[in-house]
Amino acid sequence: MKIVAELLTRLDDTMRVVKGQLAEMDGEQLDALVALLTPRPPIGSAEMVLTIPALRETEARNRAKR
What we know:
- This protein has helices at residues 2-24, 27-36, 46-65.
- The chain is an all-alpha fold.
- Helix 2 (27-36) runs antiparallel to helix 3 (46-65).
- It starts with a helix and ends with a helix.
């Protein structure tokens, strides 16, 4: 259990960094990243872990523009 807790903590820390970097990207960079990602990444894959926050950041920006 200790290893699992450690891995989850590392994943959480990494996702916070990723979200921060996505927030710092301009719209063009974010769109280019999303275009490079697999449209339907395999469940549990690294692509899925990055695609979800990238799409959420894009959606949040689109809502803010309305």
